[in-house]
């Protein structure tokens, strides 16, 4: 709790956002498990960060504004998924009761992703977005491999049907045309809000795909600029963009406005496996942001509020950078691990 709250306060203050509001929200998101000591190794290995840390910070940059985000996985009392479900649902209830999050859509698919019998893997992750022009926005990330009753593909398709996006499966099948073994569905994201802009996101982990091919596929969305994401990937990895030590990730975003056509497509490039240290990553990110007309100086200032060591003495702070086009303008997000357990985390999610 002390680490998380102090970090988010520094980030919000540096970004000119509401510090006291963010403090109240994060205290709730970290309660009660945030009172535990961090320790030297994770008791429950979280899916949030590569080293098992259960909290990740990020900043989203556009030419007009900067948002601060926090992603957490509510730690369970027991080391099993059933207990993780209880912790996650307790957090969801707290966010709806205290901060106005809306969980109707989550309730409609709860039995799919939070099964009563023999659940497996992580239960649910929660995120909050802080902006200058509104209340905090909340979202959850669900596990398509929640149990063995059905595959991730079957579970995601059923969920989209219930959520009113059944016709979106045509676009998803076209996007993952190599098959769901190589373009693996790994998360379903839901905004905890009402209205036509509330998003449903399907996340993919892509194995053995050239960035140029993935960039071309993203043309299926309503907002995309060909070649934009290929160059982004090449510049951040520094190795031609192969990204083989760690698969690329993407999502397709659906809203009631776009109906069955993806409103946007976002690429996530793994960073920690493509550089000797975080100083190199910082320089690459800064250069990419400058070329995109985004505030590289603001990124470096915020990074300084997260880093608790010299950037050259590890490579675990930067996890991913993502980018997409929004109404013809680039938007980029950088993700920072809390690095509680390992400053040189190994690659994850190797193909099996």
Can you offer a commentary on this structure?
This protein has 352 residues and is an alpha+beta fold. It has ten helices and ten strands. The chain has helices spanning 2-15, 19-29, 81-99, 104-113, 152-162, 169-175, 211-217, 228-237, 278-292, 296-306; strands at 55-61, 66-72, 124-130, 137-142, 183-191, 200-206, 248-254, 264-270, 318-326, 329-337. The chain has a ten-stranded antiparallel barrel, surrounded by eight helices. Helix 1 (2-15) runs antiparallel to helix 10, helix 4 (104-113) packs antiparallel against helix 5 (152-162) and helix 7 (211-217) packs antiparallel against helix 8 (228-237). The longest helix is centred in the first third of the chain and has 19 residues, at 81-99. The chain is globular. The two termini are 36 Å apart. The mean pLDDT is 94.
List keywords for this structure.
352 residues; 33% helix; 21% strand; single chain; alpha+beta
